[in-house]
Amino acid sequence: MSEQVLFVEKQKLKIDNFDLPRGVNSDQIQIKSTCSLMSTGTENIIYNGLYDLGTHWDNYAQFPFKPGYSLIGKVVSVGEDVRKFKIGDTVAARVNHSSDHIIEEKECVKVPESIDPYDAVWFGLAKIAFVGATVAKYKFGQKVIIIGAGPIGQMSILWAKAAGVRTVIVIDPEESRLDIAKMGGADICFSGSLVDVKEEILGHTNNDGADIIIDTTGNAAVFQSALELCKKFGKVVILGDTGSPTSQNLSSAVIQKGLNIIGAHDCHIQTDEPYEIFFSMLKDHRLKVSHLNSHKFALSKGQDAYDLVNKDRGKTMGVLFHYN
User: Fold this and answer.
1) pTM of the entire structure?
2) φ/ψ (deg, to 5) at 149
3) 3-class SS at 271?
4) pLDDT, tens only, 189-203
5) What is the DSSP pairing of strand 293-298 with strand 260-263?
6) Which pLDDT tens digit goes with each residue over 105-136?
7) Cα(57)–Cα(153) distance, rounded to whole angstroms?
8) Exposed, middle or buried: residue 130 (CB in 10 Å: 0-12, 13-18, 19+)?
9) Domains recognised in the chain with CATH numbers
């Protein structure tokens, strides 16, 4: 019997037991899960119903809902037409938190055996942050402000430093998250609201503002403050996906500074290249993510995992499920 996390309705979940179909089709593989990573932002927006009616969230989050989209597992069976994988391979797949999966070959990416599965499982969030870094078009010597030091913010720090950004400034109300940000290469960190630390931040940019702002929070109230921190003709990248987009209001800074506002979303890159780059950099020790893993739960303790994140999300970072 297989098991998975299932959001039955708003703020109600269960560990659902189900029978996996017997056998695989010619183009499919069967995976026995090793671990999966909770997207603490996306999954808990859905779990708590924190989105407006009529938004894409409203269309996406149909109950019962199967949360999760970053999973690592071992191939235990392959169809006769499968060529990329063999039994025993470690693979990454954008699938839900479940002990077992049968999926098409094209839905998987091979993970080098030298990489720890609990590092590899960051591939999904790494890709999302990669999209933000891609549209930011970082240049050597730039100053970048990353708002929010949650999982996406932490991955954004890693990509910015890998791309040669001179100064990465990170803002988050949780000191513990800023400690982790420093481990990932953040140069300057501020704890508090954007309004409270605005003048200090500008002091580190010669009062011009940053070349690029990456807003990872998904908090609509952050948007206007982010505009104020960007330099003339700079970029504001909206990477955090708010459930209340109509609350993200422009200010006069957009016209006065000639700002470029760019939306970045997971779906904007449809190839495996971000995953392959991520795994290559992990393998070569050019990226390190092990410091991001804060909590591990057996899938049977799924309720405890979501309770923790909803009670004290600021004290968590990488919340993982492990499978026997």
Assistant:
1) 0.95
2) -115, 35
3) coil
4) 999 888 889 999 999
5) unpaired
6) 999 999 999 999 999 999 999 999 999 999 99
7) 21
8) buried
9) 2-121+289-322 (3.90.180.10), 125-267 (3.40.50.720)
Find out whether the peptide bond into 117 is cis, omega within 30 degrees of 0.
Answer: no
What SS3 class is residue 33? strand
218 CB-near residues (< 8 Å, 6+ apart): 41, 45, 240, 241, 242, 243
Two tokens at 240? Answer: 């955090």
Residue the block writes with tokens 């049968």 = 102
At 24 the three-state DSSP class reads coil
Tokens of 38: 């909770």
Whether the CB-CB separation of 50 and 135 falls below 8 Å is answered with no
| CA pair distance 137, 127, nearest whole angstrom | 15
Angle 123-136/273-283 helices, nearest 10 degrees?
110
pLDDT at 193: 86
For the chain, the distance separating the N- and C-terminal CA atoms, rounded to the nearest angstrom, is 13
pLDDT reported for residue 220: 87
Amino acid in the structure at residue 43? E
Residue 183 host element (H or E): helix 175-183
Query: And the tokens for 137?
Result: 């078009």
Token digits of residue 269: 């890159």
Q: Which amino acid is at 65?
A: F
Spatial CA neighbour of 133 closest among 187, 225, 188, 214: 214
pLDDT digits (tens, 9 = 90+) for 6-52: 999 999 999 999 999 999 999 999 999 999 999 999 999 999 999 99
| Cα gap 175→275, rounded to integer Å | 30
- Which helix or strand (DSSP H or E) is residue 245 part of? none
Tokens 């938190």 locate to 97
Structure tokens at 309: 């994140």
